[in-house]
Amino acid sequence: MAVDCDEIRPGVRRILLNRPERLNAITDALIEELHAAIDIVEQDAACRVVIITGAGRGFCAGFDMTAGDYDGNPADRPLPALLAGQKRLNGLVLRLHELSRVVIAAVNGPAVGGGFALALAADIRIAAEEGFFAAANVKIGLSAGEMGMTWRLPRLIGESRAAELLLTGRRLTAEEALMVGLVTAVVPQGELLERTMETVDEVLETSAFGAWMTKELLDANVSAASLRHALQNEERTQVLCNFTGDIAEAVASFRART
Questions:
Q1: 67 and 158 share a domain?
Q2: Interatomic CA distance for residues 27 and 20, integer angstroms
């Protein structure tokens, strides 16, 4: 199996990219298994948090150019087939981005090309000291704009920094990623899971519906036409959250302690 999806705690699933001998590089099979893993998450009503990480010393090294999937000149393939494959790949980041669960990328090593994009699709990123990010496709005759990177990266670190990374393909170290706000923490490799689970615990203390709605507001309001539009989105969502019963339970609990 190129991808594992297991429940590591009640309400928490881990999606493990599992091709350590190739730094978890992307193949057609991995794409399909990752779609299947997201299917499992979507069907698990008890799941609140998803951790995506890599086996071994890499997060994901981008496309595996040694795999038979990518033999020959891509331009020799029929255009509809190329476009269909690209859409299938892009569907991964869209599904992770729109998932109603909180997605945390535990970046345990290199996140290159498509691996960089998968990390960007998460809501929260935590990196090991050995981790780094690179938009490598610009160095091999392709655009660095793949899998939503030209949309996501500028929103996370600003257009100027994003342009420098995407136009040069240089490595962004874990420490640099922390300084620009791409990751929220950098820890020794052996402490990555523990640090990730600390964030998981904090997420699990929130309400499931409230966290889902917060994700949707972050997505909608980062490009809202005005503050007024953003406030309207928040107003409607906040009213909707009142009907879950979570707020009534929280108020009763608070009053019982005072």
A1: yes
A2: 13
